[in-house]
Amino acid sequence: MEVKTSLLDNMIGVGDMVLLEPLTEDSFIENLRNRFDHNEIYTYIGSVVISMNPYRSLPIYTPEKVEEYRNRNFYELSPHIYALADEAYRSLRDQDKDQCILITGESGAGKTEASKLVMSYVAAVCGKGQEVNKVKEQLLQSNPVLEAFGNAKTVRNDNSSRFGKYMDIEFDFKGDPVGGVISNYLLEKSRVVKQPRGERNFHIFYQLLSGASDDTLRKLKLDRDFSKYNYLSLDSANVNGLDDAANFRTVRNAMQIVGFMEDEVQSVLELVAAVLKLGNIEFKPESRSNGYDESRVKDKNDLKEMCELLGIEQSVLERAFSYRTVEAKLEKVSTTLNVSQAYYARDALAKNLYSRLFSWLVTRINESIKAQSKSRHKVMGVLDIYGFEIFEDNSFEQFIINYCNEKLQQIFIELTLREEQEEYIREDIEWTNIEYFNNAVICDLIENNQNGILAMLDEECLRPGTVTDITFLDKLNTVCAEHQHFESRLSKNSKFLTDHSLPHSCFRIQHYAGKVLYRVEGFMDKNNDLLYRDLSQAMYKANHKLIKQLFPEGNPAKVNLKRPPTAGFQFKHSVGTLMRNLQTKNPNYIRCVKPNDKKAPRIFTDSLVRHQVAYLGLMENVRVRRAGYAYRQAYEPCLERYKMLCKQTWPHWKGPTREGVEVLMADLQVSTEEFAYGNSKIFIRNPRTLFFLEEKRRGCLENLAALIQKIYRGWKCRTHFLLLKHSQVVVAAWYRRYAQQKKYTQIKSATIMVQSYSRGWKARKILRELKHQKRCEEAATTIAAYWHGTQARRELRRLKEEARNKHAVSVIWAGWQGTKARRELKRLKKEARRRHAVAVIWAYWLGLKVRREYRKFFRANAGRKIYSFIMQRLMQKYFLGLKRDLPSMSPIGGSWPTRPYRFLDTAHTELRSIFHHWRCKKYRSRFTDERKAVFEEKLQASEIFKDKKALYPSSVGQPFRGDYLEISKNPKYQKLSSAMDEKVLLADVVNKINRANGKGTARIFLLTKNNFVLADQKTGQVKASVPLPDLASISVSTQNDGFFALKLKEGSAGATKGDFLLSSEHLIEIITKLRRTGATAVNHDHLDIDISDEFLVQFKQDKVCVKFVQGAPKNGTGASCKRKNNRLLEVSVPSTA
Ligand SMILES: Nc1ncnc2c1ncn2[C@@H]1O[C@H](COP(=O)(O)OP(=O)(O)O)[C@@H](O)[C@H]1O
Ligand SMILES: [Mg+2]
Description:
The protein is built from 32 helices and 31 strands. With 1137 residues, the protein is α+β, with helices and mostly antiparallel strands. Helix 5 (130-150) crosses helix 7, helix 16 (453-462) packs across helix 17 and helix 29 crosses helix 32 (1067-1082).
């Protein structure tokens, strides 16, 4: 929140003189002193700022201060020049009102400093940017240049401006500076040639000599020593706190920034040097024949150097110092100059040279800083002009200066009153006439065109005949005698006749600020400001660009016989222009006061200040301001400031502010004459009323402060308590949470522990059970596997045995056959070889015999003989070949050599058959009786089964062994063997098929010559013994199985138990043997063998049908028998395919 402050806060004395109570000169001065002692150098009179020169730097111009005053209302903060600058700048920028800042005060009061402060403040708060900054910089840097050439040390001020300056700063619509125009007024040029005691010439002379480089000085033909120059006073050439050398560099730098070219700077310095040289030119009198004194230049060296510097012909200038040419209409009269006239001419030239140079500088700066665009600009004018001057000895300059101040006072009165009046009208307040002193009458005394003092002066200057300052005073005495503000000893006004404070050669003017006595001496000369034409022409002839420019009237082509305007006229004219200019702008006043004459800080010289207060018309100022109402304030800040004084308005007033103020004033019972309500402001007639309000406010604030303190303390304690309470709750909550959390974690971990134990226990139990179960399963499997293994091994053993047996039989057989065959072959080969040898020998012998015998007959029957011989040879070869290639002696050997000749075809076939029969016979002849019987059995088996039963082919290779059990040798069957009284033809283990379920029971099957026996395999106990004659027939299937049924004759002894259904691996052998033995036993050669897949078997009473079916192919175990029903046993035979 923005804190609303007021000028009235922490006020030392009163910040605004309008509030001074009582208002007397003493109280006024006392207030200034009081504030000055407290470093409050600024005090207001309404909107006018009084500035006391502190003569020391105060920390009140910092950038922070700039920010503090920026965009604040005028009365919001303690008085400051920044407040005025801000107000002016804002109303220029925001309300488009051109402003002027009028700074007045006596020399050394701080006007120039004030003007610089205003400019620097505006530069700081206005816009920024490259272009704007450049403009700002140029505007600011114009100051050092003008100060170097226009300022000098005086007894009052070490840096006193010796010219009036008005500067228009131009802004664009945004409030950014775009350029400026400087006007200068009345340079104190007399200072160039002569300075009062304790004072100096213009700074630039000293700066140049101290600061320029040796080289520059040499070029300018100057010496660093001040004492070498007549124009430079020596007694105060060095000023404390002024560094001329450094300032020279600053000036050169500033000139560069402002935009001076290097050659321009050089020209300027040459002119400055020329002025110094000029001062050194001295004259001596030279008597002439006609009795007149004539002047001559004493030492021409300086003249020469000066002429060289400015490019002037020495003789021309020399002549101009000796002669004066007066041109009148058609004549040209040349008169010689005496020494004093020559000095006068020299000094006139020096003054003119310097003042014209200064004017040129201002013009040149204006050229640089002028705004680029032609559009209308907002303007802020800053007027830094010499203040009212009252010296002991006052001359033409003081007269002019005071005239200027008189005019400024006038415009001040006019504008202030006008503003006051306008405000009253604006605010709808009844206008009360203000009594004040109007200085228009004094202005009139000076500037009146008919009988004003300036007009009189001009008139006197132009009048032909002898005119002196005294004739001018006489004229004044006659014309102005009646004027109430004009005083002179010799005026018609007899009251001054006895006034000894008024010398004869003086006149006195009663200015608004006090009476000033002017000595008329020099008025005429100064007003004329005469420069002999010869000199100006000599200057014009100079071969120097700048000089030529400065003396245009020296151009002979433009000879102007009219006198140039007088200084007084020129000044009046420019003051008039300035006043018109100022009148169009909104004025802002800064009244500078200097507190002492010693340029010392902290000293407040009462009389000096009193004097200034008087001639600045400050009391007048306050009175005018207070005439109607002393104090005014807008309703809003007023209500804001005093609302705590009334219950209705405190702390907030809801309605319009004006009503609030009305309620407030009514509540405070302020007398109604004491104030008036304007449209936007309240006007307070008497400062007393304001202080009454302030006093009440202060008291109230104390109470409020106590109240605020009380409430704040309460609030603070409460807040602290609440904070503690809250913290306690938070801490407790956190603690509880923590405790619960801990407890919970404990319970949770315990639970998990118990849970895990119980789960583990359960799991282990299950695991144990599962393991047990698994072991049981594994045991069963292992047992089964072992059992199967045993079975399989047994089977394997058996199969291996059988295979070994079979293999042994075939190997023995083959070996035997082989041996026989090889033996036979060897024999045959031997025989063949012998026969062949015999045959060959025979053939040879025969051939020899034949050839011997038949040689003589050969010719007669040679053909037949050869034929028969060849035939014989062929046959012989055939037979021998056949003998050699005879196939094996095995009856089953199928091979036979191929026939060599076709004609032997029949014989070859025949021979093969013979050979086969022969070898069969041979083979048979080798058989024993047993082997013969074996083969007979095989033959019989083939007769029975070949192509009838699928089992047959597999039995062909197997020899019929008969006693498979070796019953007589095996001790196990001893009993059984002994029971058999006959030779056992066949002993084997068969399966007896149980008719009830089709399963087989192992039985020993024995066959003897007359019986067949079935006995228990293990015990050897005979189960059945059937005589062979009781056997009726045998039934077998066509398939690859070992089942056979032994059917008994009906009515036989064995038939009571029924037929036998058996199965054996040696089915073919058993049946063949049964048939062979049975046939012999029964003596008939026929035992029926029925081969079919379905036959009936008699079991006791029932006939059961045995049916053979093809089952799925199966490895290992053979056919299986199953009882289907009472009448059917089904044998499933695995297919071989
Ligand atoms: N506000 C100020 N703060 C500090 N010193 C100041 C101030 N105003 C003026 N001075 C001092 O007073 C001297 C004279 O001031 P100046 O402005 O040149 O006077 P004027 O222009 O009125 O003749 C300055 O050189 C400076 O030393
Ligand atoms: Mg000044």
